[in-house]
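The step that takes the researchers longest sounds almost clerical: writing a folded protein down as plain text. The outcome of that step, for a single protein, is printed below.
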Amino acid sequence: MVYVVNNPQKCVYVGVWVFLTLSLNTFAQTYKPIRILPNTFFKGGEKLVYQLRYGIIVGGKVTLTLEDKGNTYHVRGEAVTTGLADEIFSVKDVYESYFEKESNLPVFAIQNVKEGKRYKYYNETIFDRKNNKVISSRSGTHEVPPDIIDMMCVFYYIRRIDLTDAVNGDSYKINTFFSDKIFPFEIRYRGKEIITTKFGKISCLKFAPIVEPGRVFKSKDDMLIWFTDDANRIPILVSMQMVVGHVYCELIDMQNLLTKPVFMAVD
């Protein structure tokens, strides 16, 4: 897909897509081993709603809902354009994943993409953990690494990474399967930072997904994600410095969190 970001509304559309798919590129790097902690960060019923903004223009919304399905969780991510952006270039993308509670590894995923008046893409993916294979309804069987996950799992996977001895600059590589291809996803820990939100100030863990310079970004460090540094570790803000301007994805609503977050008053 070719992205032409020559106006603010289209820029917000690209922001919707980039937020859901994060970064799908990797560079030569020494990676820190990943250890997943027992899940004390989220539960079924959690709902997170984000607003995409380009300057004062609000052009999109992303909603993440999590359901308890017994041995698995079902996450549904929906990205839609709103307002004028929806009139110019409508986006209604739905990504779903069923992942194991203990390992946080997916067993089944769905992509249902509708962009503009003509583009549609639908795919179902089965993760065969026993044989390290992925079966795509569109392209058949693929050999994959044993730790392969899909893009919707990434948000919850990162929330469970053990950061006990993490230092600024540590890089983690997560193997993902997206659009029938294996993509190593690299994310760099950038330390802690207090940010101001609509709910108040809160201490956060700062991460920088490595993005590909060129069509959308100027440099590989032009995307930042802040997760709350508390018992929930919810992604609360995404900043994307794009070629044509700055796009923000801000948390505007949160429901059924495992622990009530504590926000500080804004001075």
